[in-house]
Amino acid sequence: MSRPSDTIAALATPLGTSALAVVRASGPDCAALASAILGATPPPRVATHADYRDDAGRLIDDVLVTFFRGPRSYTGEDTLEFSCHGNPFIAQSLLDDLLKRGCRPAEAGEFTRRAFLNGRMDLSQAEAVMDLIHARSERALTVANQQLRGSLGRHLDGLTESLLLVLARVEAYIDFPDEDLPTEDRAIVQAEVLGVLRGTERLLATSRYGELLRDGVKTVIIGEPNAGKSSLLNHLVGHERALVSAEPGTTRDFIEERLIVGPHCLRLIDTAGLNPTPATLEKLGMEKTLERAAEADLFLWVVDATRPCPALPASVSERLTPANTLVLLNKHDLLLGTPARAHPPASLPALEISALTGEGMETLTQRIVQHAEAFRQDQGEDLIAINSRHADALRRAREGLESARLILSTQGPVELLASDLRGTLDAFGEIAGKIDNERMLDHLFATFCIGK
Fold first, then answer.
1. All domains of the chain, ordered by start, with CATH?
2. How far apart are CA 370 and CA 204, in angstroms?
């Protein structure tokens, strides 16, 4: 059980052999621990070289130790960080000694949880810590850094401040039950509620972009057998990931690879060929293809430019739109100046490529980046991409604001109006962590790694 009065300790770097490892401790006993281990508490925020001896006096390693006096520390309380050599045995021995001296093993995310509870960051910033650690692309890293510095919190503070002013105006009439909200005041409140609603919707619109940044753009390669889908995958990932053969139907299952394209991460999925007369095993592969197609963010439809364009299964073709599909006229190197025989639907954007020679690949990557950036919703200078927890709270906030607008437009009672506005404030508060919800905090920080 987490207790703020405990001094906690954990390895803050991954397990395994490395040049360095860091062991971190946080809590009220850190100054005394430093004095007992080193002979004196080092000056705050200064890296100090010292021998680390265990409680029996045995030398474990020579270390760099940094003492952070609370509240000017990550957790907001006294903190010690020991940088030792990256032998796992050394790091574990150092940690074991701290535990023998009275520290408790830190729970998952407990350092960041203490930072949140001590007011060093709001909950959206705490979540950004994990986003920063797991960022798979340049754009994901940019968003995580901005959120860690409070970009989402600033936007929410602005919406909350506007809503509090509206609520104060409304509740003034609740205190005087003999008076109703005048028409002119209703118009003012309605305009202010609409402004908060629009701001809420702008934040909510960044949810899809957030999914793409955290999970990668799910890009599904589809097409008939032997169109060059696996050759395209191999060219994009830069090595022979998929077996390529002149025999149609080589890929019987889907193959997934992650790669960086521009500032984005792609989850590139090569699927079995869509054959109108498949064999039994090939049919099973096609079923997997249809499953992946149902979840795709982007389709790369590979067509053999030397052959007529094939028909796609209805369950796939009905999902293809100009916004989510690129038709790749492959094997363009075989045309030798003759026009392509494949004629895909004119409504879908097409690109001439050769997965063998690399022709058109640079343009392809540019088009993929453009597709991913189309989901971006700018919020002034900030690049915000909310997560699913934020989206759930913002949807409830939107519902409360839409209900409030309905009450205003139908001359409904101000008591119900105030109730909807308070519910919206609570939803905003959940995002920043200003609403006390222990179970929600337990669930959120359980996803963190030990030592963070």
1. 8-121 (3.30.1360.120), 125-206+382-433 (1.20.120.430), 219-373 (3.40.50.300)
2. 21
